[in-house]
Design brief:
heterodimer; A: mainly alpha; 75% helix; 1% strand; B: Helix Hairpins
Chain lengths: 465, 110
């Protein structure tokens, strides 16, 4: 509840800052301070200190899992804001509004991590997406940004309609909007589950898969990620996507186990995983632009996160948290560096190690982490995902598929490392924006990734104690 | 009237909306079709609400089916918020390219 209240309040404060604060440079720091208070408020709530004790049980339930995920998400947003202070200032004269929308997205995140009612799922998804439609189009004069924004908006609104149809049918089948299923009706059933509920669940799953950009509902992702301004892409591809997965996980945890008698969910999810991994990895190989390559790589990583939704056990729960952390940090770092380089193609990175050794070294660590090399956080993230499948005891061939695709992904991640270290060239970097603060932040993120990779229990022990 | 009539009517409206989204090329008409989808869902929810209300035994504490009607109001509010954002995006697009044809949206595909 703390994070929800504080993020809404900070959103409104930032809105007024656009009138009241004349010093443009201060706004970024005000936003960073706001994020810090939300982070502290959320950690305090994990240990039992709340602003209000208002009973919101049937709608939201703040359990430890959700609160811990909130901490990870808000920390990622904090690092994201610190790394992209200058880019956000450059997106136009609407800097305070940019931060306002980010705070409202955090509002949506806190609802999605704690919802107990399908009404809250719907509201959370909408609070999360509507600010993103605006942020995607925040570069108003850029045609690509406009196009991405309109495309994202139309697709997003369409999927909202489909999601609502699913929720309405589930209501028709069970007579309740609660996440916990009510009494199953006795007429018109298949293996004890009503037809309406089965249809509704399948439709709702399609809409959630769309939000999380899982194949076959991924087609919007590359275009939108490519067209949006780089800081927004970084935000969408990491924090928002991971939150959509968490909401998906919470839904499946209850509803899928309840309807396993009627629908072969394991088979459906297995097909989705293979399709997502295949499309994401194979298409990423052929990309010439690093930004588009990262867009497809984010689809490939979504395929790995689907393993958690496939297995739905404790290992998957831990793994999802760990994956959220590892994936968000690495991708935020990569996008932050990219926004300092004018040419987004692979050639634009040629010889970066000579000109900006810090940037190249940290980026190499991020790429190693994304491809899952041991001693980085990405390795254990993938390990937990595959271990969760082995624990379920069925469909173990999915593990082999996962390992194969992880190997393929090394090709396009290492291609960037090769461009930075082993090719000669003079990359077109925006030197005056690469401040010592920016470099130090990148080093902190890289050290954090290596620490998490060397001692994975650091994060998970904190989760249990 | 049996609830299945309402389900058929709502599904028909929803399918008209989906078909419109998939075939029309004008951004505003696509957007209107999305609104049609949302309203089909509203109709469905109200029908289910009535169905639940009849199913509740008389004299019970809660009024059955009222939550679906509240859901309808939330859908209306969110749809209004979406309209305000969506029309702003369409206007922004129009100012830059002087067209709201969706066929323009293929510059990113290469």
């Amino acid at each position: 509840m703390n994070a929800l209240i504080l993020s809404a309040v900070w959103g409104i404060i930032l809105m007024f800052c656009s009138i009241l604060v004349k010093n443009k440079k201060a706004i970024g720091y005000i936003a960073a301070f706001g994020l810090l208070t939300i982070l502290i408020g959320n950690i305090a709530e994990t240990y039992g200190t709340q602003i209000t004790h208002y009973n919101i049980y049937p709608m939201l339930l703040l359990d430890r899992f959700g609160l811990f995920f909130n901490t990870i998400a808000i920390l990622s947003v904090f690092i994201f804001v610190l790394l992209s202070l200058i880019e956000i200032r450059k997106t136009g004269k609407y800097e305070p509004e940019f931060y306002t929308l980010i705070f409202f997205v955090i509002c949506g995140i806190t609802i999605l991590t704690s919802y107990q009612n399908l009404l809250m799922l719907f509201l959370g998804i909408e609070i999360l997406s509507i600010p993103l439609y605006i942020l995607t189009g925040s570069d108003k004069k850029n045609l690509k940004s406009n196009e991405a924004s309109l495309k994202y908006f139309l697709m997003g609104a369409f999927s909202t309609g489909i999601m609502l149809l699913g929720i309405a049918l589930i209501y028709g089948g069970t007579g309740t909007f609660n996440l916990q299923p009510g009494t199953h009706s006795v007429v018109g059933t298949y293996h004890g589950i009503s037809f309406l509920e089965i249809t509704g669940l399948i439709i709702l799953m399609c809409a959630m898969a769309f939000k999380a950009s899982v194949a076959p509902f991924h087609f919007w992702a590359p275009d939108v990620y490519d067209g949006a301004p780089t800081p927004v892409t970084s935000f969408m591809a990491t924090i928002v996507k991971v939150t959509a997965f968490l909401a998906f996980f919470k839904l499946c945890e209850v509803r899928v186990t309840d309807t396993l008698t009627a629908v072969n969910w394991k088979m459906i999810f297995a097909v989705m995983i293979v399709a997502t991994l295949f499309i994401g990895n194979i298409t990423a190989i052929f990309q010439q632009s690093v930004k588009r390559m990262l867009a497809y790589s984010s689809i490939a990583q979504a395929g790995f996160m689907m393993y958690a939704i496939f297995s739905l056990n404790d290992v998957a729960k831990e793994g999802l948290l760990y994956y959220a952390m590892a994936y968000s940090l690495a991708t935020i770092g990569l996008f932050a560096t990219m926004s300092k380089i004018k040419d987004y193609s692979f050639e634009g990175y040629n010889g970066l190690a000579k000109k900006q050794p810090t940037l190249a070294a940290t980026n190499a660590i991020f790429l190693l982490s994304l491809s899952g090399i041991p001693l980085t956080a990405g390795f254990f993230a993938k390990y937990y995902m595959l271990a969760s499948v082995i624990k379920t005891g069925s469909y173990t061939w999915l593990v082999i598929v996962g390992v194969c695709f992880a190997t393929i992904s090394i090709y396009y991640y290492f291609r960037l490392i090769q461009a930075m270290y082993f090719k000669t060239g003079n990359p077109d970097t925006i030197d005056h924006e690469i401040t010592p603060f920016f470099k130090n932040m990148l080093i902190v993120v890289a050290v954090f990734i290596v620490l998490l990779g060397a001692f994975p229990q650091l994060l998970l022990n904190w989760f249990y104690f | 009237m049996p609830v299945s009539y309402y389900i058929i009517l709502a599904s028909a409206l929803f399918c008209i909306g989906v078909a419109g989204v998939l075939t029309r090329r004008n951004a505003i008409i696509v957007f209107m079709c999305i609104e049609l989808m949302l309203n089909a869902v509203n109709l469905l929810l109200v029908a289910f609400s009535k169905m639940q209300n009849i199913a509740t035994p008389p004299g019970s504490v809660s009024v059955g089916g009222s939550d679906a009607q509240i859901f309808v109001f939330f859908i209306m509010v969110v749809a209004a918020a979406e309209v305000s954002v969506g029309l702003a995006i369409i206007v922004m697009m129009y100012r830059n390219v002087h067209s709201i044809d969706i066929n323009f949206l293929n510059r990113l595909k290469n």
